[in-house]
Design brief:
Elements (H helix, E strand, L loop, with lengths): L1 H18 L6 E5 L5 E5 L8 E2 L6 E3 L3 E5 L2 E15 L10 E7 L5 E2 L3 E7 L4 E2 L14 E2 L4 E5 L8 E19 L1
Antiparallel strand pairs: 1-2, 3-13, 4-6, 5-6, 6-13, 7-12, 7-13, 8-13, 9-10, 9-11, 9-13
């Protein structure tokens, strides 16, 4: 029994010290004297960070239930939205990803799911790869994933606008890079 535990312990130490170490981007540079210097830059990874919905405001009759970077929206509205006016301005030029769930349970007039706006002047944000914006502004309701870049002059305001919609637990999860 003691021998088995020792083998397991040694195996865990070997795996922990050697088996999980990965430096994929290694290069060796010669110093000219025959000696070699190893330079490790480490892997490059794009990491998504959560865009927190906790202090956002709803307007126009939307009921919002935020939990971290996910918000669930409900309500029958003519014109309404979900907005925050004090995001970090350092987010300018950042890529934002919205994952949208349960859109099929909601009813959207003309299939207009939502419009994304930024800055105090409510500048229209055009999502990447979506060329069929309804009325030139609204993302169609069949999209479950939406990517966009915040503008280079981002002033901290970001919003989602809904027009003539019956939202039934529409869930939006937001991250950024």
């Amino acid at each position: 029994m003691m021998k088995r535990m020792s083998i397991v312990l040694i195996t865990m130490c070997v795996i922990g010290l050697n088996g999980c170490i990965t430096n994929d981007n290694r290069s060796q540079a010669s110093t000219g004297s025959g000696a070699q210097t190893q330079v490790s830059t480490g892997p490059t990874v794009d990491v998504n960070a959560n865009l927190n919905f906790q202090r956002w405001d709803s307007w126009g009759g939307i009921k919002a239930a935020p939990i971290g970077n996910t918000v669930t929206l409900s309500g029958k509205v003519d014109a309404a939205g979900y907005v925050y006016e004090d995001l970090d301005k350092a987010l300018k030029n950042r890529r934002v990803l919205l994952e949208i769930k349960n859109a099929s349970a909601s009813n959207f007039s003309e299939g207009r799911m939502l419009k994304i706006t930024a800055n105090k002047n409510d500048q229209l944000i055009r999502p990447l790869g979506i060329t069929d914006l309804i009325r030139g502004e609204f993302i169609p309701s069949n999209y479950q994933s939406v990517e966009f870049f915040l503008p280079s002059d981002f002033d901290g305001k970001l919003g989602f606008v809904f027009y003539q919609a019956d939202l039934k637990d529409l869930q939006i999860t937001a991250t950024y890079q």
